[in-house]
Each structure stands twice: as C-alpha cells, then as structure tokens.
Design a protein that fits this description.
- By secondary structure, the protein is α/β, with parallel strands linked by helices.
- It has 2 domains: about 210 residues, Spore Coat Polysaccharide Biosynthesis Protein SpsA, Chain A (Alpha-Beta Complex); about 210 residues, Hexapeptide repeat proteins (UDP N-Acetylglucosamine Acyltransferase, domain 1, 3 Solenoid).
- Helices cover about 20% and strands about 30% of the residues.
- The protein has 9 helices and 41 strands.
- The chain has an 11-stranded parallel sheet with strand order 12-15-18-21-24-27-30-33-36-39-41, with no helix packed on it. It has a 9-stranded parallel sheet with strand order 14-17-20-23-26-29-32-35-38, with no helix packed on it. A 7-stranded mixed sheet has the order 5-4-1-6-10-7-11.
- The radius of gyration is 31 Å and the shape is elongated.
C-alpha cells in the first residue's frame, strides 16, 4: 500500500488580512499549498489528503477533484486537524503517514525521502523532522534523550531551560499509520492554548512502548512559514534568491537582480541573459543564448535559442529560434512565432501563427491569423477578426506585402506574393501575385481651406 500524506491547510491567517485561506497566499506566484504538494509528488507520494477549514470552498476550487479533503470546522490545533482525517487514515493504515503544514512551503524532497528512510530504518513509530535555527522563538523545542526524543514542548509551555534549545519542530512528521490511529483520539487539550497538539503524540506513543526519534534536516528554511505580509515577503525573498542561485550555477547571466522574479518551475538555457525587471512565471522554458528584458513578463511560454525580447509580455505562446521582439509587444495565448521573425514596437499578436522571417514592424494588430513566411507588414496594419457576433481567421500566404494602414476584414485570404496598397480595407480574397487597392475617390475643392481660414480670422478680429 502507498504511504499517506496529510497536509494541514485549515488556517485563516488573520494577520495576512486576506479573505482566503492562508495556504493560498503565494510565494513566487505559486500558492504555498501547491509548493507542499509539489514536493510530495516529486518524492513519489500521491495519496494526499488536505485538511481544510477557513473558506473551505476556496480550497476545493483550487484542488479540484484531484485530492481527498477533510473538513476541520473548528480550528482547535494540529492534533484536532489530523483527527478530522481519521477516515482517510483508516482507509490506508498499513504504511506510513507524512504530516505537513500547508503554510510551510520550503519542505524539500531530499528531506522527505531521507526522513522516511531514517523512519523505516530505525523502526520508529514517529519521526519528527527538525531543524536548528538561531532564533527559535515561537517554535516547539525538541527534547532529546538517549533513545531518541522524549517530547516536543511548545513555546508557551516551555520552561526556561527548554527555551534555550535551538532544535525545533519543523511541523513535518512521519508516523507509522496504525500507531497514529491508535493514540490519535487520546490527545488532550489541557495546555495553555486549550488546543489539541499533534506533538503530544510523541509522549503518548512513548508511553505505549513505541519508539520516537528526530531527523535533523539540512534544509535551513524547512520550518519557515508566514503569519503576516512581512513574513510572506520574507518567504518570497528567500525563494527568489534560491531560484536565481540555481540558474547562476547553470550558466545563466543576470545583469541586475532589481525586480527579477522567476518561478521555480521555469527552465533557462546556458548563456541566456536575464535583465532587470523580468518576471518569468509558470512553466516557461527559455533556450540558450537569449536576451530577455528589460521589463518582460513571460508566462507559460516556450522560447527557443537566440531570442531577443525587450519589454515583451507573452502568455501561453511559442517562440522558436533567432527571433527579435519589442519593445512594447504583447503576445497573447496560442501565438506561435516561427524562426527568424522580427516584431517591432507596439504590436499585439493573438491566437496566430507568424511564419519564418516575417516582419511585423510596428503599430500592428494580428489576431486569429495564419501568416506565411517572408511576409512584410507595414505600420498600422490590422486584421479585423470580429464582425460583432463571430470571429473569423485571416490567411496571409508566403511573401505577401501588407501596406501601411491596411485593414484585413476576416474571413479573407491574401495570396502568395500579393500586395495590399497603403490605406486599403480588404474585404475580398486577393489572388497570388495581385495588388489590391481599396480607396475612396478623392474630391478636391479648390480654395476651401483658404476661405475657411479667412472666415475664422474675421470672426476673431470682431471679438477683439
């Protein structure tokens, strides 16, 4: 049977001043709860139950139907939270159960797997994952003895000697599941907080002749959580620096770290330069020898090699190789830019494919379009893709030339090597090699402007 995971996610986080569960507050754009889930799944643990509480429906919406949940209607401590998941534990009680805090995002796979090996190797009933920190204020202290540990004492219940201990409870436990079930409802709330502490399981298991021990993690931030916005900012700073350090070691260049924020799921190739003000989100993949920035926002975008971006926002797009884009360009979802494309300033592209070596110089909107290779767009060109009721696609074939201020009213096709004259509004297909001109007849009225200016001057002279 697979091992279990219980993630405690019922807290409100009043000092965060948000109307959502604390575990949904984000670190580098990812909810803290998702950080914890990701570490579990990377450790090969998929039998996960999330114990929800405050604004439980938001947890349900976030998780979907992928994970089991249990509801903690009253927040009466960590032990009480685990009690609410008794049905989940009983459904798979032959293995072990990992208990984690959903607001401690930096639990890592190395610690999870190493602690489990330690837990099984020593035949422990419970293994507490600990860390040593310079300022342990607020954390439960680990009280060790010759046989492992004897107790975890919470800050408010500790005596002066125990308060000097620097080894603290990280909030991460490995339990033998059946042993946990056997003593879970024996936990009492006779403490200064009037809560059911999960840490009391240590004493209860020892009293039953079971073995309790502690695994000291090498991860210095495993126990860190956040209770307010300042603490959350601190978590973001730690995560941001850690992610950047990994990329530096992998051969990525950073010219300045001001405003640089990179999701931990982002991949960046060797020799790529990241400039100031760059935000890389989601599962963005960037190839080698690119120049990204300044002030780019790239989300869930796949970028090839030798790509230069300047003040570009790109969402759910694909950019191939040897491309230059910007400044002030937006690439909206389902955009695919092929090799050698050049896109200039103030351009927006949406749900379109731009063929090899095409140039979209500036001041252009390309939406719902299939553009071939070696096409040239003059400034101010627009693909008008919506008639007020439905959207249609525009097709522009290889080697076409779209004149300045051309409006292409979809559905329309511009043939191979066809031209559109500047200022034209094209509503019909243009054959291969043709020139399409659509302009109104010019009417010139001699003397009109001169007479109008004279009348205006006469009016102003009378007012004086």
């Amino acid at each position: 049977m697979p091992d279990n995971v219980l993630i405690l996610a019922g807290g409100q986080g009043k000092r965060m001043k948000v109307k959502s569960p604390k575990v949904l507050c984000e670190v580098l754009g990812i909810p803290m709860l998702q950080w914890v889930i990701n570490s579990c799944e990377k450790s090969g643990l998929s039998n996960i139950c999330v114990v929800k509480g405050y604004e439980a429906e938001q947890i349900d919406a976030f998780l979907g139907d992928k994970y089991v949940t249990a509801l903690q209607k009253e927040r009466l401590g960590t032990g009480h939270a685990v009690m609410q998941a008794a049905e989940f534990l009983n459904s798979n009680k032959d293995g072990n159960t990992l208990v984690l805090c959903g607001d401690a995002p930096f639990v890592d796979t190395e610690t999870i797997t190493s602690a489990l090996a330690f837990h099984n190797g020593n035949k422990n009933s419970v293994t507490v994952v600990t860390s040593e920190i310079s300022n342990p204020t607020g954390y439960g202290r680990i009280i060790r003895n010759n046989n492992g540990i004897s107790a975890i004492v919470e800050q408010k219940d500790a005596n002066s000697e125990q308060l000097l201990v620097n080894e603290v409870n990280s909030g991460c436990f490995w339990f033998k599941t059946q042993d946990l079930i056997d003593i879970l409802f024996d936990i009492k709330s006779d403490n200064s907080q009037g809560e059911y502490y999960l840490t009391d399981c240590i004493t209860l298991l020892i009293e039953k002749g079971k073995r309790a021990d502690a695994f000291k993690s090498l991860n210095p931030v495993i126990s860190l959580g956040a209770n307010d916005r300042k603490g959350l900012l601190h978590l973001n700073d730690i995560a941001r620096e850690a992610v950047i350090d990994v990329h530096l070691e992998n051969g990525v260049e950073f010219t300045c770290l001001d405003g640089v924020v990179i999701s931990p799921e982002v991949s960046i190739g060797v020799g790529t330069k990241i400039q100031q003000g760059v935000t890389l989100r989601g599962k963005t993949v960037i190839g080698e020898n690119c120049n990204i920035g300044p002030n780019c926002i790239i989300e869930n975008t796949k970028i090839g090699n030798n790509v230069v971006l300047n003040n570009v926002q790109s969402y759910d797009a694909v950019l191939e190789n040897n491309i230059s884009i910007g400044p002030f360009v937006q690439l909206r979802p389902n955009t695919h830019i092929l090799d050698g494309v050049k896109i200039g300033d103030f351009v927006e592209i949406k749900n379109s494919t731009i063929g090899k070596n095409t140039a979209v110089a500036h001041l252009t909107y390309v939406g719902d379009s299939d553009v071939g290779a070696n096409v040239n767009f003059g400034c101010g060109a627009v693909t008008a893709n919506h008639n007020g009721e439905c959207k249609f696609r525009t097709e522009i074939c290889d080697n076409a030339f779209i004149g300045c201020n051309t409006n292409l009213v979809a559905p329309v096709k511009i043939g191979k090597s066809a031209y559109t004259a500047a200022g034209s509004t094209i509503t019909k297909d243009v054959p291969d090699g043709a020139l399409a001109i659509e302009r109104g007849t010019v009417s010139i009225k001699d003397g009109f402007a001169t007479n109008r200016l004279a009348a205006r001057n006469e009016k102003f002279s009378k007012l004086k």
